[in-house]
Specification:
171 residues, alpha+beta, 2 helices
């Protein structure tokens, strides 16, 4: 029983390491896309995640999927990248990736650097990739809602939910 619990923790850490590795590759592919096109992939679908639909287990066409299609079809990535678990659409336990491209102007989604007390607006960046981990990390930018201080500490409303920021938008 103790061994199984320990193995589950090791598996979760392994999946979290894969998430970070995969998403760094996606960021590199996004930069290559930018170098070719002069902009990052623009998506405007209201669904922005990669999660499987809990009722039919199909992958809905969301912004993540649209962006992935562009990166794969142009050869920047060999296959579409999805969360190792990629389940839980519509639940607080969802483990999926989300992409918000250059058209975002959202003032509610914000990201806070490790150890910082003030957050930045996601809409100030060319793109933001949101993701969740299974283990808490002090070393990643956390996603917060509307700069609510309750979200700035582990165990807040957005615990285990993180941001990877693209380049900052110009003036």
């Amino acid at each position: 029983s103790i061994v199984l619990a320990n193995m589950n923790g090791v598996r979760a850490k392994t999946r979290d390491a894969k998430r970070l590795s995969d998403l760094k590759q996606v960021q590199l592919a996004l930069d290559l896309y930018f170098n070719r096109h002069g902009s990052y992939p623009v998506t405007d679908n209201s669904r922005n995640d990669s999660c499987a639909n809990g009722t039919s287990n199909s992958i809905p066409q969301g912004n993540w999927n649209i962006m992935m299609g562009s990166l794969v079809s142009e050869g920047f990535l060999p296959v579409e990248v999805k969360d190792p678990v990629n389940t839980g659409y519509g639940t607080s336990n969802s483990l999926c990736y989300q992409y918000a491209g250059p058209a975002i102007s959202n003032n509610w989604y914000r990201c806070i650097a490790p150890g910082a007390t003030e957050s930045v607006r996601a809409g100030d960046y060319q793109y933001v990739i949101y993701f969740k981990t299974e283990e808490y990390s002090n070393n990643l930018w956390r996603m917060v809602w509307n700069n609510d201080p309750a979200n700035h500490t582990p165990g807040g409303n957005a615990a285990y939910r993180y941001c990877l920021l693209g380049p900052k938008k110009g003036p």
